[in-house]
Specification:
Low-confidence stretches: 1-24, 96-120, 467-483, 620-663
Mean pLDDT: 81
Number of strands: 49
Strand content: 35-45%
Shape: globular
Helix content: under 10%
Oligomer: single chain
Radius of gyration: 25 Å
Largest sheet: 10 strands, antiparallel, barrel
Amino acid sequence: MPRHTLVLIAVLLTSPVTAVAIGTPVAQYAHEWPQWRGPLGTGVAPYANPPLTWSESENLRWKVELPGRGHASPIVWGNRVYLLAAVEVTSDSNESSGALFEPSDETKIPIPGDGTRFRPRGIQPENALRFVVLALDRGTGDVLWERTAHTAVPHEGTHSTATWASASAVTDGEVLVASFGSNGVYAYDLDGRLLWQRDLGDQRTRNAFGEGSSPAIHGSSVVVNWDHEGDSFIVALDRDSGETRWRRERDEPTSWSTPLVIDVEGRAQVVVNASNRVRAYDLETGDVVWHVGGMTANAIPTPTHADGLVFVMSGFRGNMLMAIRVAGARGDLDGSEHVVWSHERDTSYTPSGLLYGDTFYFLKRNSGILSNLDAKTGEVLFGPERLEGIDGDGGVYASPVGAADRVYIAARNGVTLVLARGPGFKILASNQLDDAFDASPAIAGNELFLRGRKHLYCLADSAKSAEFDESEASLRGSDMSEPPAGDVAALGWLSGCWQGTSGEECWLAPLGGTMLGVNRGPECGGRQPSFEFLRIIEQDGDLVYLASPSGRFPPTAFPAVEVGESRVVFANPEHDFPQRITYWLEDGENLRARVEAQEIGEWRGFDVAWKRAAKQENLRSDASYWSPVVGGRLVAGDRESGPTLSPPATESGSRAQPNGGPY
């Protein structure tokens, strides 16, 4: 079940998928936090299991002081955490760490009738800034490398609660793109080597409130939105060279929304939230595919997408949240059936929404008041509900995130609330740290990363880690050079169809010394689901797990190193990722798996949980089978050669003859 794999048996596969190979960046995507709203673009980490409770003394793996200031959320890939910051350079060349340019009384405007409260306005830079890209060790928080992308005095001020490093970086596992807006867009490899840089000009934002739209990567394109009080535009850059692929002018005032790239009927679209019109552009050509009005001024929340619906929201001087069906959408959608539902109460100003399964969570303006709607119908499930422990309006800038059937909301007073996912309102925990959080959290594996104004925190369940370390010590003692003898019939407990929130996996019952399996992962960041063909065979008296991502041939082999009554471990220490795959059965109805590799002296990976959806007696155990179309091809298989794919259909729709082997 290597890297990105959760699944549906070949006889049930019905939707087109994109090829994904073991160890490739796309295969790793769903298990990391590679962009500002996570791997799915929804705010959810589908494979993660972060802690429920923490403090300065509980479940704190590490805490490091950060240079300068920034609202850029951390992103996570492999063993590294990437972060952006703006570091003040004073006249005597001593750099300032901590808060930059805190507003003085002269930069505050009294609110009429109340001399004790102030309305913030833009603050002006006093010294040059270093615009910095940092790579930190995920296990320790140590800085692995630091690059100064640019040094300059910003041409314009920013909001007193904002920073000059508010856009988050993004990576696809090969290229890291950092946007400092008017101070340049920069691309690095993951070891910090500069690949290219682009100067797209200077933005003039409304009231000098600053910049904050993050870039997006999809395939070979980097998309940057540039809405301001001047000539607004959106541009697609070549990921490898930075050259312009296309650029389209936009009739929009300042917005801060990050573009979302989705797959619609086999073509990628770029959806951008804005005050005048929400627009979708064809990623290949830059042409506008569809557009719709209705948003308020100062559009900030990033769109989200799942199950054919795009959700767009704004909440300044008005309220609007709408769900748009994108299949077949063309041209002006105002008043059309493609606007499935809308909601005009208590929507977010700064935080983006959290799309978790069939529910959509959002905060009222920037406050600790939460609502939850049914994503398909717009029905109110709960809310508005006040979140105890979070200050009133202005208390939340960070966007909510989700993992392990929990919702995490970080506030500006250092409190993070954890709620149970579901239609009901239930707070599970309230956690306090000695910092304030404006940046949105990041979640990967069993870790939660919180960027405060002064520190970056890595939080992980220490009790779970100790239990895992003990089990790992015993497994490391296994002799991988001599796999235990085994009969594939001993793995009959694995047979069946298994489903979870992050995908599906099915296995046919043992027959003739072979088990056949296939898996399918979730849609991920606009990418179509991965798929993978699996076999467990008897080879010279031993059991071997064969994995064929996207039908790739030859498969990767993982010999069994442990075979028990309801647990099996396969390992290949020479492979990059994974090196070990463990399955175990709990209570007869719950299948668990762990996929992992040794990285920098410790085992890292992810856990998967499924529930039984079909029993083995309902699955065919014949020697061969055919499935419906997968990505335009038929899937066939037998227990001797494993699954194969027929060649793609020709332009006329006829199907070429199979070539006799895995395609």
